Amino acid sequence: MRKIKLGRTGLYATEVSFGALPIQRISRNDARELLRFAYERGVNFFDTANFYTDSEEKIGYALSDVRHDIIIATKSATDSVEFMQKNLEQSLRMMKTDYIDIFQLHNPSTLPNDDILNFLYKAQRDGKIRFIGFTNHKIELANRALDMNVFDTMQFPFSLLAAQCDIDLVNRCKKEDVGFIAMKAMSGGLITDPEATFAYISRFDNVVPIFGVQKKSELSEFLGYAENPPVFDEAMQKRVDKERSELSGDFCRGCGYCQPCPVGIDIWQCARISLMIGRAPSAPWVSDKWRAEMDKIKNCKDCGLCKSRCPYGLDTPALLKRELSRYDKLYEELKGNK
Ligand code: SF4
Ligand code: SF4
Predict the structure, then answer these.
(1) 60 lines ligand 2 (CB under 6 A)
(2) Ligand 1 centroid, distance to 270 Cα (angstroms)
(3) How far is the CA of 300 from the centre of ligand 1 (A)?
(4) Is 101 exposed, middle or buried (0-12, 13-18, 19+ CB in 10 A)?
(5) What is the 3-state secondary structure (H, E, C) of 227-251?
(6) 3-class secondary-structure state, position 120
(7) Nearest CA, atom 6, ligand 1
């Protein structure tokens, strides 16, 4: 399988890499089988997080005997040195290893202070961390993190729905020799054409996608594209355009840049719920939980914060209200069909 250089780390990750968030949802033995399957089919890069409950422990269970053949990235979501130290020790213990290849700051809301950086440098000197990465959903913060020139990798959402600012970030990483790790390649389930996704992302030779999978069939599909790469021709461009147009205009990409909302609306899910119902299995969205989440939209104060943060220029409060009205109808219809 083709390997892609992760910038200045000098590590080469397979073009199908493994996002280990979904293995939280499957049993320990099923996770082991899936991770071994990935490894045996050539996948060499596994990305997890301290925050993903037992995902790290499952990686240790499945892959500790081949530790030196793989690249492991994990993340810590704290801004306290004390807790980051605990996170790091736990990650090492859970994954039965004495070093993490890429230790990432997990979607922080601000840039790290000197205490955090000094902790990371010391962990590097002690051999516990090889490289330092930054992950985020906010384009402005991602760019400011690059300005610091201390991160070896950047993890950011990237899919065939990419806006120009996302492509600019990819190109900036290439220019500055920072590895680019693409999360949300399927836009959280909204994109329904994995082949077009693979073909689109492959056009960026510095992008390493981590596909979040919980079944062998899902992984096999991407591995099949790596073995027989789809050609990005006119027909493929049309497929990309079709996804983009169906998910076009004022649709919410689920990037989360607009969060947090002062009244606790889960904007990145609520602003696209009718699309999720139309393009993915609807049952999980027609539940008491999502009924209650959607009803929070009635508390919107029209403060405009979300709108001012949306990089796609969406009128987010209006979008939420439109989605609430669509959801009201769909909820009644789908409940009635249950
Ligand atoms: S406009 Fe409404 S949805 Fe947006 S941040 Fe303000 S309260 Fe939340
Ligand atoms: S409303 Fe805009 S910023 Fe918020 S999740 Fe959707 S696309 Fe992203």
Answers:
(1) no
(2) 12
(3) 5
(4) buried
(5) HCCCCCCHHHHHHHHHHHHHCCCCC
(6) helix
(7) 303
Cβ of 255 less than 6 Å from ligand 2? yes
Assess whether the C-beta atom of 298 lies below 6 angstroms from ligand 1.
Answer: no
Positive or negative: CA dihedral 212, 213, 219, 221: negative
Instruction: Indicate whether residue 252 lines ligand 1 (CB < 6 A).
Output: no
Domain range summary for the chain, segments of one domain joined by +: 3-240, 267-337
In sequence order, the 6+-apart residues with CB closer than 8 A to the CB of 298 are 324
Tokens of 73: 């990235």
Per-residue pLDDT for the chain (338 aa), expressed as one digit of tens each? 999 999 999 999 999 999 999 898 899 999 999 999 999 999 999 999 998 899 999 999 999 999 999 999 999 999 999 999 999 999 999 999 999 999 999 989 899 999 999 999 999 999 999 999 999 988 889 999 999 999 999 999 999 989 899 999 999 999 999 999 999 898 877 888 999 999 999 999 999 999 998 899 999 999 999 999 999 999 999 999 988 888 766 788 777 778 899 999 999 899 999 988 887 778 888 899 999 999 999 999 999 999 998 877 899 999 999 999 999 999 988 887 65
Element (DSSP H or E) covering residue 45 = strand 45-47
Q: Measured from the CB, is residue 254 less than 6 Å from ligand 2?
A: yes
Q: What is this structure's pTM?
A: 0.84
3-240 to CATH, choices 3.20.20.220, 3.80.10.10, 3.40.50.620, 3.20.20.100? 3.20.20.100
Q: What's the CA gap between 9 and 11, in Å, rounded? A: 5
Give the pairing of strands 179-183 and 100-105. unpaired
Kind and range of the H or E element at 216? helix 216-227
